[in-house]
């Protein structure tokens, strides 16, 4: 691997792929295992922490000398001036346990500026219906989308189907009720609970394919919904997409976000492809690095991180989209992709943590 760098190599302040220290302004319980964390954007960064509905932050923490990075969706309305994430504790979870149990007002967290493309482009004149489907902590980006839509598009409506165990596990239960009150007739919320009986039988049980089919048929006019946003565990997201497509939704109108994709085979574990080294040139922060790589791995991001510690990433498993770059010459293959929409892939965007070069020369530009 060679580093043929050109141009400015200094870290400039305010760059979108640089970590910033954010003060913790509030930590408020949402449920017994989830908290809302309000952060203060760093001063003097000229709107670097402004965000669009559905975007997320990458937080990092050093644990035993090892850097751990995790992604958390912003849950407040874009333009509200409040930078807030909501975190559910996972059993044994390195970062979620710290955030939910140890973080205190006055502490600081390190975060990358908001990124992500999961969320609609809004305009005050739109008259649309947005369909949202969430399970558990998957509500966080949808909470931001719902509250932003209701604020920014006075003629648009939102339908939310939200699955949980019991009403005590519902993150944002009160906030959703407040949103309904503030926007009468424009927000419909269907709470689906697995371990608590509700009057309507259809709302009792897992949000699986059969229940989604039944709910859509009974409560939601799919043909009236312009865009769908789905966030939850992998099986729910897959079931929801299938149910929506079968109910007549356009494939391009169904947008999905996963928080976790289970055990993903790392790109470097793909079968070895013989042949000479290939040349991958990467443009990042105005500086080009040329990597001499094998077609069988490691993935472009792994190779790049050996010489460029400023390369952006979080999950390294094809889920968060932080490592995205555009392939402007040659071709790469991705071992997995749970972050990019089909039209992004068609336009040449790739996840560098999953990318292996196919052609003898490849040129990538981080975006
Ligand atoms: C785009 C995106 C947005 C996200 N937004 C949020 C959010 O708003 N709120 C939130 O609470 N989380 C969110 N997550 C998940 C978050 O980034 C972490 O994965 C999660 O907090 C677990 O981190 P951890 O360090 O506590 O667990 P780890 O120490 O990484 O893992 C502990 C155990 O849980 C498993 N695991 C890891 N993550 C998950 C998961 N999400 N579901 C089930 N099992 C898992 C691991 O395999 C391991 O066995 C988001 C993830 C992505 C990619
Ligand atoms: S680092 Fe998360 S998709 Fe590549």
Can you list the strand order of the major beta sheet?
A: 4-3-6-1-2-5
Low-pLDDT segments: 1-14
Specify the CATH architecture of the largest domain. Answer: 3-Layer(aba) Sandwich
**Rg, Cα atoms, Å:** 21 Å
What is the makeup of the main sheet?
6 strands, antiparallel
Number of strands: 18
* End-to-end C-alpha gap: 23 Å
CATH superfamily of the largest domain: Nucleotide-binding domain of ferredoxin-NADP reductase (FNR) module
Please identify the structural class as seen in this structure. alpha/beta
Mean pLDDT: 92
- The helix content is 10-25%
Which ligands, by name, code or SMILES, are bound?
flavin-adenine dinucleotide, FE2/S2 (inorganic) cluster
CATH class of the largest domain: Alpha Beta
Question: CATH topology of the largest domain, what is it called?
Answer: Rossmann fold
Shape: globular
Count of discrete alpha- or pi-helical segments spanning 4 or more residues: 7
What fraction of residues sit in β-strands?
Answer: 25-35%
The structural domain count equals 3
Task: Report the order of strands and helices.
Answer: EEEEEHEEHEHEHEHEEEHEEHEEE
What does this molecule look like?
It contains seven helices and 18 strands. With 367 residues, the protein is an alpha/beta fold. The strands form four sheets. A six-stranded antiparallel β-sheet has the order 4-3-6-1-2-5, covered by helices on one side. It has a five-stranded parallel β-sheet with strand order 9-8-7-10-11, sandwiched between helices. Strand 12 and strand 13 form a beta hairpin. It starts with 19 loop residues before the first strand and ends with a strand. 43% of the residues are buried. The N terminus is likely disordered. Bound molecules: flavin-adenine dinucleotide and FE2/S2 (inorganic) cluster. The site of FE2/S2 (inorganic) cluster has 13 residues, from loops. FE2/S2 (inorganic) cluster (FES) binds next to loops.
């Amino acid at each position: 691997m060679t580093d043929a760098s050109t141009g400015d190599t200094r870290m400039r302040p305010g760059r979108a792929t640089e970590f910033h220290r954010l003060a913790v302004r509030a930590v408020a319980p949402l449920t017994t295992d989830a908290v809302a964390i309000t952060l203060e954007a760093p001063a003097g960064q000229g709107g670097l922490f402004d965000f669009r509905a559905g975007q997320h932050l990458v937080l990092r923490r050093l644990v035993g000398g090892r850097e751990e990075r995790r992604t958390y969706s912003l849950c407040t309305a874009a333009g509200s001036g409040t930078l807030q994430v909501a975190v559910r504790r996972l059993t044994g979870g390195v970062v979620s346990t710290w955030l939910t149990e140890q973080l205190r007002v006055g502490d600081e967290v390190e975060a990358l500026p908001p990124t992500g493309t999961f969320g609609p482009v809004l305009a005050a004149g739109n008259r649309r219906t947005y369909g949202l489907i969430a399970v558990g902590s998957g509500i966080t980006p949808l909470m931001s989308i719902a509250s932003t839509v209701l604020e920014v598009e006075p003629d648009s409506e939102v339908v939310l189907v939200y699955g949980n165990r019991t009403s005590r596990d519902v993150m944002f239960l009160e906030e959703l009720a407040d949103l309904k009150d503030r926007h009468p007739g424009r927000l419909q919320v269907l709470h689906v609970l697995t371990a608590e009986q509700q009057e309507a039988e259809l709302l009792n049980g897992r949000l699986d394919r059969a229940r989604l089919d039944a709910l859509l048929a009974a409560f939601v006019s799919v043909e009236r919904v312009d865009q769908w946003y789905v966030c939850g565990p992998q099986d729910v997201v897959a079931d929801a997409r299938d149910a929506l497509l079968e109910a007549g939704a356009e494939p391009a109108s169904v947008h999905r976000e996963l928080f976790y994709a289970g055990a993903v085979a790392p790109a470097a574990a793909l079968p070895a492809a013989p042949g000479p080294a290939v040349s991958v040139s990467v443009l990042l922060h105005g500086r080009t690095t040329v990597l001499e790589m094998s077609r069988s791995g490691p993935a472009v991001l792994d190779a790049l991180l050996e010489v460029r510690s400023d390369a952006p990433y979080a999950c390294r498993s094809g889920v968060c989209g932080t490592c995205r770059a555009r392939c402007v010459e040659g071709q790469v293959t991705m071992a997995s992709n749970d972050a990019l929409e089909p039209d992004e892939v068609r336009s040449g965007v790739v996840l560098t943590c999953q990318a292996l070069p196919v052609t003898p020369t490849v040129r990538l530009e981080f975006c």
